[in-house]
Design goal:
This protein has about 325 residues and is α/β, with parallel strands linked by helices. It has helices spanning about 10-25, 65-70, 80-100, 135-150, 200-205, 210-220, 230-235, 305-320, and strands at about 35, 40-45, 50-60, 110-120, 160-165, 175, 195-200, 245-250, 255, 290, 295-300. The termini are far apart. Bound molecules: zinc ion.
Length: about 325
């Protein structure tokens, strides 16, 4: 790896998606379709409104020192950072289930989180010479997609979350998604309805904290359950990040929810997450934002904002609708 540290570690992938969203606002995240699950040969939702969606979480290749430490600790091969990331995603979906149930929506939401094992990325068809040193986000996602196809793991209604360990890969940044596999159940272009997303646990662990790792794992997962039209209907802005919130706890402290993570701080090194996201955001359009004036401390909560809960619930209702 090049000794020069990334000058800007951020949502490289999201940047690609969001820039195109800015350019063609309404074109991205368009019609989600009811998709069929190959695994059980039934529609993603039946007439009673049942919703069956999986989030399958995979570990990417881990550095030797991390693997050794996990082995010594007698764990199951997943270091604490990955287990915590997976647990955070599980907790986030639990919040969605509770939110929907309390409002008698999504009658039988079957939102499951499960481990998908370890994956060594396949060589990507989009790989360029420069990708050998620092793989591009496109190459990572393509290699991931190829492995999933090889394993026959695509079901039509699954979010596949790759927890990778690339602390110096500024092209992957904190992670993200890319069209055409950016939304669960969106089979509009015939690509199966599975969504692929990446959370760079190595980056958040190296540059930030375990709290940021948890939040970014949730953040990158929920991108696949939030399309621009649903987000705009809920929050008045098509940007997923604006559904997040940054709440003043005291004069110097902001508490940041998952969708706002990497976007709630000032656009400078260390004002919030170490690196600021490069995707869309507008603090004045956030669900709640207390401002960054005088803020020196940044804390993170895995509690989803109400706007995020509403957005994901609406997305699932529409995706699972008749
Ligand atoms: Zn994002």
């Amino acid at each position: 790896m090049t000794p020069s540290l990334p000058t800007r570690l951020a949502d490289a992938a999201e940047s690609g998606r969001v820039v195109s969203r800015r350019e063609v606002l309404a074109a991205v995240g368009g019609a989600a379709a009811v998709s069929w699950s190959r695994a059980d040969a039934r529609p993603m939702a039946d007439a009673t409104g049942d919703t069956s969606v999986q989030v399958r979480v995979y570990s990417g290749s881990l550095p030797l020192r991390i693997r050794l430490r996990s082995a010594v600790a007698g764990s199951d091969g997943w270091p604490p950072a990955l287990r915590d990331a997976l647990g955070a995603v599980d907790d986030a979906l639990e919040q969605v289930r509770d939110y929907a149930r309390e409002r008698s929506r999504l009658e039988s939401p079957d939102l499951r989180v499960e481990r998908g094992g370890s994956v060594r990325l396949a060589r990507s068809a989009v790989q360029r010479p420069s990708d050998v040193v620092v793989p591009s986000f496109e190459a990572v996602l393509d290699g991931f997609h190829r492995r999933l196809r090889e394993r026959d793991a695509l079901t039509g209604s699954t979010c596949h979350l790759l927890l990778c360990w690339e602390p110096l890969n500024y092209r992957v940044g904190y992670g993200g998604t890319l069209s055409p596999n950016a939304h669960v159940g969106d089979d509009a272009d015939g690509t199966s309805g599975d969504a692929l997303t990446v959370a760079n646990v190595g980056a958040s662990e190296r540059w930030d904290s375990r709290d940021v790792t948890r939040n970014m794992a949730i953040h990158e997962t929920l991108h696949t359950f939030l399309s621009a039209d649903v987000v705009e209907a809920v929050g008045g802005s098509p940007c997923d990040h604006d559904l997040g919130e940054a709440v003043r706890v005291d004069d110097e402290t902001l508490r940041i929810s998952p969708m706002a993570s990497a976007y709630a701080g000032r656009e400078e090194i260390g004002a919030g997450t170490r690196f600021h996201g490069t995707g869309c955001y507008d603090h004045s359009a956030f669900h709640r934002h207390g401002g960054t004036e005088g803020v020196e401390n940044w804390t993170y909560t895995t509690d989803l904002s109400e706007a995020t809960l509403e957005g994901v619930t609406r997305y699932l209702e529409r995706t699972a609708g008749p």
